[in-house]
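Hey, quick one: can you model this chain's 3D structure?
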Amino acid sequence: MDRQRLSRLAHARHPIAAPLADESVARLLERATAHTEAGRALDLGCGEGAWLVRALASRPRWRAVGVDLDAQALTRARETATALGVVRRIGLHHSDVREFGATEPFDLVLIVGSTHAFGGLRPALAAARELLAPGGRVLVGEGFWEREPSRAALDGLGADRDEYADLATTTDRLVVDGWTPVDGHVSGQPEWDAYEFSWSGALAEWALDHPEDPDAASVREAADRHRTEWLHGYRGTLGFVTYLLRRD
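Sure thing. Here's the predicted structure for all 248 residues.
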């Protein structure tokens, strides 16, 4: 199955594509947008636009732009924005995030769970810096090692040991690059477990509900494989941190 369609199915019940509970998302958005009544937000790798439509719903004088390669996800984002009455304040671009350019800077740039599109956290932040207005904020989410990864964890994630660092090292690298964390959130185990059960469960349920679909068997296989890789591999090893950053 196409990876983009698989991701849409997996996130059907958890549109924030990261292990963050609704209350965590709400608090981070409140902090990220509190510095100005009227602002512009950009989400690089926006998917179905969950972060942006929530921000616009709570900030009536903000405008937003989302960028993603998944055209169907952008269609869903537009539908959600229409239902919430914020569609006139959002622009959605079907584009590679690495190629996106803007004529005006943004007061908030979001890259949560999509740093891989840039080749990692530091190049993602380098791209965000070029799009950020003076005094603006970046909300970025990234993985880190909660503990030394086992071979089972690395195999389950399809990752190398050097792909992530521990939380302290990850934070130190940001500071060296000229960023100051002004807030943040480390996802707890209940958030991780809810996200992973939702991810694999949404796929399994779709396969059960669509047994005649040609993709049903591959979707069920993906659900079972993901659940096994998580429970027998990286559970408790891979962490997730969402930073709110400012430039020095």
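One thing worth noting: The longest strand covers residues 132-145.
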